[in-house]
Amino acid sequence: MSAGTETKSLSIEPQPFFSIVIPVRNDEKNIAKCLAALQQLNFPSAQFEVIVVDNGSTDKTVEVAKSFGAGYSSFQLLSRPNVNISAVRNAGAAVARGRCLAFLDSDCEPRVEWLETASQAISTGATGVFGAFYLVPDSSSWIARHWYQDWESKPPGEVSFLPAGDLFVNKDTFEKVKGFDESIQTNEDFELCQRIRAAGLPVTNMPELGVIHWGTPQTLGGFFRRNRWHGMHVFRVFLRNLPLLHNLKPVALAVYTLLCLTGVFTSILVSLWTKQFWLPLGFFAALIAPPVLLGIRAATSSRRIGSFAPMTLLFLVYGIARASCLLDWGNWVASVETHDRGVGIPRATKQEKS
């Protein structure tokens, strides 16, 4: 057993069917909800193991996680500080014994039938990657309800990607595609799904597998910060795969928004000198045009006229958040590492399993 790993049970029989991998960092409140919910699953406890991988928490996250360990047939707690979340997930997958990996974020709460539903999906032929988009808490604000509950909800069937916080994949398949790309901090779920699809396997949304996402932003400030963080490496993934145009739409909106914002502020300075203010008004109109059109689309698709104004505002904030990512020079640098060098579970981590 490696240093930094704690295991409740030394027995390796029977082999679990699911390995639930939970990355966490400074999330003592939500990890308690997550682990408590897993203890309530209506699925045989011997058929799943729980692997919590701590990313250098400085609060009581580790102590809270340890306190739940005795409630499972198999529980491991690993420490992987100061690495990207993709590497944290890979570390958990490297020591997993189950046939199927179930990636679950620490701020997510699964329903009691979560694993039972996943097991039924596998028995009826589910392959590739499957999972669901997040459910928002019942007490959510208008921001969470309009954006995450309505706009980001998807019907069942094939999709371009699934969030890594509620994602199932066969372990052999995961290892064949070399796991999550450890060189990127965000957009790693989208990037993994694109490699899964390139391998000829589907990415399937199953809403019945939805988990409550307690980390859903509830304020405009939180919404801005979340989308700025998520957008960190969206542009990097785009640059790596230019012929495939991965992330084209969010990148195009980010670039367009940044150009419009630059035009607004520059033209204001010019207008102070010339006393003609039509130019900044023109740039401002150009800035809000895409959010307005997207707001109309959202209201039309949901058949709720009342969602037009809030969705327009949220698309504007989203565009500005993603545009701000372009100001970080590091996000312009596309990684030139090959999949053998930049993707997958490090050899050292694999060896720790033996």
Unreliable stretches covering 5 or more consecutive residues = 1-12, 334-342, 345-354
Rg measurement, Å: 22 Å
Q: So what's the CATH class of the largest domain? A: Alpha Beta
How much of the sequence lies in strands comes to: 5-15%
Instruction: Work out the helicity level.
Output: 40-55%
Determine the mean pLDDT: 87
Structural class: alpha/beta
General description of the model:
- The protein has 354 residues and is α/β, with parallel strands linked by helices.
- It folds into 2 domains: 224 residues, Spore Coat Polysaccharide Biosynthesis Protein SpsA, Chain A (Alpha-Beta Complex), CATH 3.90.550.10; 90 residues, no CATH class.
- Helices cover 47% and strands 12% of the residues.
- It is built from 14 helices and 11 strands.
- The strands form 2 sheets. The chain has a 9-stranded mixed sheet with strand order 1-4-3-2-5-9-7-10-8, sandwiched between helices. It has a two-stranded antiparallel sheet with strand order 6-11.
- Strand 3, helix 2 and strand 4 form a beta-alpha-beta unit.
- Helix 10 runs antiparallel to helix 11 and helix 10 crosses helix 12.
